[in-house]
């Protein structure tokens, strides 16, 4: 793994919490950091703050709304047309789904259940569209969660008996299943793809909004992200699910090849218009 100072890192959801800390710490180490956010004003402000605090001018900001798949597709096109080559992709953007969101069934601009759209479909679409500019030997980190629930393929949009936390945990298991499949696809290009539960209920706005109380710090979460992104001992390690810095076992459905095949087909059908 080459030093961070020679890497281009794309971090989604980089204007708050874990994403923002990762952007700042990697910029301090001299990386070229591409930040993504969904609020242009907040994004530009974050960009300038990090430039000033790190004295690193190799930073770019890209706007994109993950609740709209056409916006995600445009985001990918903007990054590609900016002539970027990515060494590390950190799919960190997401929406929570704790007790405070349990009964409100929200949908994305495309009509998908909102957590499924943002935490899963948008991540897959962005990653797939960026594959041509992801370098050989790169690392992709999908920020998942220890909270995982089996997907019901008869009701992926949770039309019946909606529960916000269940929607969240299903979206995170789907992201882990995608991680396993993508790692196989990219092995020949020496690109490592792993999923990560960075820490439990970090002190972020998302956790406060949905759970009310934090159990760990953003610093602890960053330490896990940094380990997956830069550790030499993980050279060649791919298709794994990590809890903090240890390899762990995800929910059983993640290892079910038939379930992963169903998910892949469902995903391809959902994203066909935007690919």
TrEMBL record:
Keywords: Oxidoreductase. The lineage of its organism: Bacteria, Bacillati, Bacillota, Bacilli, Lactobacillales. It comes from Tetragenococcus koreensis. SUPFAM superfamilies: NAD(P)-binding Rossmann-fold domains. InterPro entries: NAD(P)-bd_dom_sf, SDR_fam. Pfam families: adh_short (PF00106). GO terms for molecular function: oxidoreductase activity. Belongs to the short-chain dehydrogenases/reductases (SDR) family. This is Short-chain dehydrogenase/oxidoreductase.
């Amino acid at each position: 793994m080459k030093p961070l100072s020679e890497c281009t890192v794309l971090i989604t959801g980089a204007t708050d919490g874990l994403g923002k800390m990762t952007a700042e710490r990697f910029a301090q180490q001299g990386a070229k950091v591409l930040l993504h956010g969904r609020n242009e004003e907040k994004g530009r402000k974050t960009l300038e703050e990090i430039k000033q605090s790190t004295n690193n001018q190799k930073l770019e900001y890209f706007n994109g709304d993950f609740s709209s798949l056409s916006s995600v597709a445009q985001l990918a096109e903007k990054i590609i047309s900016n002539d970027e080559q990515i060494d590390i992709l950190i799919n960190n953007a997401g929406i929570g789904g704790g007790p405070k969101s349990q009964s409100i069934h929200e949908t994305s601009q495309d009509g998908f259940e909102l957590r499924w759209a943002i935490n899963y479909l948008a991540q897959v679409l962005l990653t797939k569209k960026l594959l041509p500019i992801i370098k050989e030997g790169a690392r992709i980190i999908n920020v998942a969660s220890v909270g995982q629930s089996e997907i019901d393929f008869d009701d992926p949009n949770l039309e019946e008996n909606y529960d916000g936390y269940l929607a969240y945990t299903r979206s995170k298991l789907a992201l882990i299943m995608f991680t396993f499949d993508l790692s196989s696809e990219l092995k020949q290009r020496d690109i490592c793809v792993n999923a990560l539960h960075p820490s439990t209920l970090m002190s972020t706005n998302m956790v406060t909004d949905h759970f009310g109380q934090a159990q760990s710090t953003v610093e602890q979460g960053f330490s896990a992200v940094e380990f997956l992104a830069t550790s030499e001992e993980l050279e060649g390690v791919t298709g794994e699910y990590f809890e903090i810095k240890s390899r762990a076992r995800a929910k059983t459905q993640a290892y079910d090849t038939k379930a992963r095949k169903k998910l892949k087909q469902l995903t391809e059908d959902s994203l066909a218009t935007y690919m």
